[in-house]
User: Fold this.
Amino acid sequence: MKIKFTIIFLLTISSYLLFAQDIFVNQVGYLTNQQKIVYFSQPADSFYIIDKTSGKIQFKGEINTSKINDPATGMNVYYGDFSSFTKEGVYEIKNDLNQISFPFEISSNPFTNVYKKSLKGFYFQRCGTKLLHENAGKYARPACHLNDGVFEPSTGLTGYRSVIGGWHDAGDFGKYVVNAGITVGTLLLGYEMFPDNFNSDDLNIPESGNSIPDILDEVKYELDWMLKMQDSDGGVFFKVTPQHFAGFIMPDSDGSVRYIYQKSSTATGDFAAVMSMAARIYSSFDSSFAKKCIEAAEKSWHYLEINPSIIPNGGFHNPPGTRTGQYGDRNDSDERLWAATELFITTGDSIFENYFFGHYQNFNLLNSTMTWLNVAPLAELDYLFSHLPKTDTAIKSKLENGLINYCSKLYAISKNDGFNVSLNLFEYNWGSNAVVMNNAVMLIMGYQLTGNKNFLNAALEQYNYILGCNGNNISYITGIGSKCVMYPHHRTSAADGIADPVPGLLAGGPDRYLMDKILKSKFNPSTPPALCYTDTQESFASNEIAINWNAPLVFVAGFFNGSKYITQIKERVGVKSNDILIK
Assistant:
């Protein structure tokens, strides 16, 4: 664990912790004309909004009960609503007990920093290239892993193949196609749905200023690596890792032999899907790259066609001697559906349409949140929101109802939680914060479909949870908020000798199943689920970071980065908001 810690930071945080531990705010801010909620763990009659500069009271509000003995936190939770207060500025909240919150901003655009930092978090995960001082600042580092990779014997191949590049997957230095698939798919979905919100070209990455949105530049860095992972027959190799995780060292100090592992149909399906998305999205920026992507996608589809059963048999498993990430999945039907859907949307070819028609009913239509283990919701969302005139109206109607019903379910779960979180108690698992953000993505898509403000407000509450409105009173994003994650399970942050961790990375969050020894030492099965979190480097089950967790954060941060989305709902499927108002 790092022991270097600045005195200024300690003094600042300790002074706030004396007062702020019982008041929970979004530590970044609130949108001027949208819902604004503050939470308290102590009962009081009133709360006051204090101008941070002048110290004057600007607003007085009533404190109400949210949840007594909240099952997720074990707390009595109270709330105040200051949605009607719209004066822009920087504020603190004080209650009748003279407790003071962390500061926050009210403005029409308070989340630009969250969007930029969370997206740039991917740049800091780049493998195989130097991070230069002009782009990375104090986090600059030499190129790493320039010998990727050697074929692992389970591939049946020998020798070396250059698979340099891509993103480090998580707190480790491995690179996994399956996890890259859902990550890239989520980022491209955000851009395709809301291009105006994701069109900035000033992130300060090497490609900034090239007239291509930086989100697409960053995603292309990963796509270029994924293309290297495709074999000549269209199948896609599963991952590039050593046999064992590296220690807490800098990536350029990792001299371990890194192996290319065998092909898998789950990796191939994910690959075909995101390459199909890339083909249509990049076509207006780089037609030759788009052509390369669609050709690769179609080649992978051919591989899936001639291998109708899962490859390898029973799904990918680590061979003897390997103990890196497995992303085990015994069912590749969702990856095949996603691949067919994206190929159909991009090409309009009836082959892919017929596959979708023949298989979509095997899934509960938009009745769950997407994960790397289940990418069917990504297929269904893209089909539902597709502009293709050939799409089936009856199927779209089923998908509309599925999305509305699922968002209504998420809304109901959130309203039964003290902090309005959309998690069932059993969902406080490894990576629970990613579930929260993916739920927010689903709610945003539900709002996009219907205009129902309940869905929009619920999405905002999930965002608030990540940024401080949680029982741990912490912003779960490194470098964001007054009290944020400082010791993520992230090798670079641990080894770089810099007090502050690499910014913009989302920690996994509470894990009620206590899946590492640090959590077991601090908590027990009786600990409320939402409190099973520790900002400790060794706690990989609660404090690791991962690219597939950052992707929905970027989606949500980008969506709320501005106010255009409120007044410019795209009328894609014709459902009216007053059809489904939730009381």
User: Anything to note?
Assistant: The radius of gyration is 23 Å. The first strand starts at residue 23 and ends at 24. The chain has 18 helices and 14 strands. The domain at 142-391 is CATH 1.50.10.10 (Glycosyltransferase).
